[in-house]
Amino acid sequence: KNEVEQSPQNLTAQEGEFITINCSYSVGISALHWLQQHPGGGIVSLFMLSSGKKKHGRLIATINIQEKHSSLHITASHPRDSAVYICAPSKGGAQKLVFGQGTRLTINP
Amino acid sequence: NAGVTQTPKFQVLKTGQSMTLQCAQDMNHNSMYWYRQDPGMGLRLIYYSASEGTTDKGEVPNGYNVSRLNKREFSLRLESAAPSQTSVYFCASSGLASAYEQYFGPGTRLTVT
């Protein structure tokens, strides 16, 4: 069983829809990262959180440490949000990441 | 401020050849990482360096060596390339000033024939 499970693996939605991507993990962690990988391949860090909730613009990330679960929400989705979103819990002081398989999101205009 | 830079962007090697992938960051980060990304496998940690002068193995270190040349630079060497090392390689860095978020380089696409 993978240490990190993301769902769904693929998601297609219409512009403006509310998007939720889920991440469950089995390892003990010090924090959890959400990353975005653009179609061109570049990887950008969206959030790092160890408790509660964080918000950047239309993106919201939440984490429940007890339940070992995190969610990434996108409000008012836009075609430019189309990308692969990767959940990555980190272990230890050196922030070693364990990666989920990613969720491929496509937002149609 | 260039962030994390990697060279080369693309490379084709024959089986048995050696090469070094270079990575540099200008954010004064203590920690640096090398990952590989394969289709269907997600990203996997090869080696990391928590601070200048230290390196440690990650999940898939076999066939690779690393050098933390100084605080800025962290190189990855393939001594004898194998087709199984065909992948996209990403370098990343993180530090206290960035609240430990990881900043990724643009990647190196390596093909071993």
Could you name the key traits of this structure?
heterodimer, A: 109 residues, mainly beta, 11 strands, 0% helix, globular, B: 113 residues, 7-stranded mixed sheet
Note the gap between the termini of chain B: 36 Å
From the N-terminal CA to the C-terminal CA of chain A, the straight-line distance is 37 Å
Query: Please, what is the average pLDDT of chain A?
Result: 92
Give me the oligomer status. heterodimer
- Give the beta-strand count of chain A: 11
- The shape of chain A, in one word, is globular
Description of the structure:
Helices cover 0% and strands 59% of the residues of chain A. Chain A is mainly beta and 109 residues long. In chain A, the strands form two sheets. In chain A, strands 2, 4, 5, 9, 10 and 11 form a six-stranded mixed sheet that branches. The model of chain B has no long low-confidence stretch (mean pLDDT 93). Chain B contains no helices and eleven strands. The radius of gyration of chain B is 13 Å and the shape is globular. In chain B, the strands form two sheets. In chain B, strands 2, 4, 5, 6, 9, 10 and 11 form a seven-stranded mixed sheet that branches. Chain B has a four-stranded antiparallel sheet with strand order 1-3-8-7, with no helix packed on it. Chain B has strands spanning 4-7, 10-13, 19-25, 31-38, 42-49, 56-57, 64-68, 74-78, 87-94, 103-104, 108-112. Chain B is an all-beta fold. At the A-B interface, β4, β5, β9 and β10 of A face β5, β9 and β10 of B.
